[in-house]
Amino acid sequence: xxxxxxxxxxxxxxxxxxxxxxxxxxxxxxxxxxxxxxxxxxxxxxxxxxxxxxxxxxxxxxxxxxxxxxxxxxxxxxxxxxxxxxxxxxxxxxxxxxxxxxxxxxxxxxxxxxxxxxxxxxxxxxxxxxxxxxxxxxxxxxxxxxxxxx
Length: 150
Hints:
Helices cover 53% and strands 15% of the residues. The protein is of the alpha+beta class. The termini are far apart. It has helices spanning 2-26, 28-57, 67-73, 80-87, 141-149; strands at residues 92-93, 102-107, 113-119, 122-129. The protein has five helices and four strands. The longest helix is centred in the N-terminal third of the chain and has 30 residues, at 28-57. A hairpin with a 2-residue loop joins β3 (113-119) and β4. A four-stranded antiparallel β-sheet has the order 1-2-3-4, covered by helices on one side.
């Protein structure tokens, strides 16, 4: 959380410092060059965000191919955009709208789910929940046929 607050101040100050340095060393062409670079950086970020959301729009909300693999790939501090890019779907919102922390759930076809908690858009914690497995698993059909033949 502290890093996010610092980041909100440091990035604009760094951009301003780059613009000032561009002006001091090269005049207005330097400002144009640095400004063009900053605009290009913003456009690249915007294009990536749109591409992730475009892929996610074509999938059911809250669905992931494998919740176990998602659980293995998650780490604290990941932005929500990166998690959406990994799952290729938007998460099912579990918390009330516009409240912090936000809770999103992704499920797979086996019934396993991953509940992710985001605070300020960064992943804080997650929990994998798997369906209960029966203790007595059914015996395969081919094994029963082998035993009866003996």
